Amino acid sequence: MGDLGTTIEGFFTEFEALLLLVSGSLAVIGVIGLAILYLGSSWPLISDWKRDNPKAASQVTIGLLLLIFVGGGGLATLGIGG
Q1: Which of 3, 22, 28, 34 is the most buried (most CB within 10 A)?
Q2: Rounded to a whole number, what is the distance in angstroms from the first to the last CA of the chain?
Q3: What is the helix, strand, coil percentage profile of the chain, to 5?
């Protein structure tokens, strides 16, 4: 059995890689959803939903920017965190 510190460090390294993969996948899904939201405005279902939720597109955009920034290592670039 190895050193406990090495085991914990290895776990968090693998966990970080998993989270980067998940955040990248969610960003792609979010961009596709945002494109459907904008381009599908002529469809009655989407146009009704957009009329009922006027802030939805801006909130999705802000969420995507945060997801891409944090998932892409933006905090590490600024010297915050790992």
Answers
A1: 34
A2: 26
A3: 85, 0, 15
How far is the C-alpha of 62 from the C-alpha of 33, rounded, in Å?
A: 14
Do 26 and 46 touch, CB atoms closer than 8 A?
A: no
pTM for this entry: 0.64
- Asked if pLDDT for residue 82 goes beyond 70, the answer is no
Please name the residue that has the structure tokens 């968090």: 12
Spatial separation of the C-alpha atoms in residues 82 and 73, rounded to whole Å: 9
**Residue pair 27/72 in contact by the 8 Å Cβ criterion:** no
- 23, 75 Cβ separation under 8 angstroms: no
Q: What pLDDT was estimated at residue 29?
A: 87
